Amino acid sequence: MSDELTTPSAAAAEVDHWPAFNLTPKEYEQAVAAIAETMDLEVVGWEVKHLDSVEGLDGTYVMDVTARFRLAGMDFLILFECKRHTSAVKRSDVQVLHTKLQSIGAQKGVVVAATGFQSGALEFAKAHGIACVRLVDDAWTYVTRHTAADASLAPTGNYAGFAMTPDDDDYDFTMLTGSTYNARSALIPPDRTI
Questions:
Q1: Which of 33-37, 161-165, 177-181, 190-194: highest mean pLDDT?
Q2: What is the C-alpha end-to-end distance of the chain, expressed in Å?
Q3: Can you give the pLDDT at residue 120?
């Protein structure tokens, strides 16, 4: 008799107990899309921190502002870089945030500027999905180039800001107010599936 214990084979240990799908790849994608359409899109646990230490693959970053939340059962992290410069934000400033996004694994980056952005900064931001926000005076202000825009553009809140996000040809400008819808629509465009 052998003293060795018998162990199941590696193949037996890795048996998939889930049912097999008889769907084509396209049908499978359509099934996933149908499930995604039914997801709860309520933002849960919105938490904002100033000077937040966040661990990245290559060290710890102290971010100007972070926002964490849960949406559709998934955790999200937004990194904000605040640039109160006397000149327009440069491409290199946006590139630094992009590097931090990659290291940390955050889902969205936002550069907030007092004086605007150089064209190279906006091009880089557009290519990498980084939002560019303009903060002015003491109220969030909304401006858009779409013809379907609301004509009543009244500043409200404690800050004025423009969220600049890329569209097909140029950039959209979205008002950021105390309304969570406006901030959410700037950070998570309604035409983008999460």
A1: 33-37
A2: 59
A3: 92
- DSSP-H helix ranges across the chain: 10-13, 25-37, 91-104, 119-128, 180-187
Burial 117-136 (b: 16+ CB within 10 A, else e): bbeebbebbbeeebbbbbbb
Pick from 60-69, 132-141, 144-153: least confident: 144-153
Distance CA 72, CA 1 (A): 56
CA distance 43 to 154: 25
Tell me which DSSP letter residue 191 carries: T
Under DSSP, the state recorded for 117 is: B
Q: Give the residue among 169, 170, 166, 165 at the shortest CA–CA distance from 183.
A: 165
Report the predicted TM-score, pTM, of the whole model to 2 decimal places.
0.62
∠ CA 114-149-43 to the nearest 5 degrees? 70
**Contact indicator for 191, 170 with CB cutoff of 8 Å:** no
Sheet containing strand 74-83, strands side by side: 44-56, 59-71, 74-83, 108-113, 131-136, 160-166, 171-175
Q: 7 is written with which tokens?
A: 């162990």
Summarize pLDDT for 55-94 with one digit per residue, the tens: 999 999 999 999 999 988 889 999 999 998 889 999 999 9
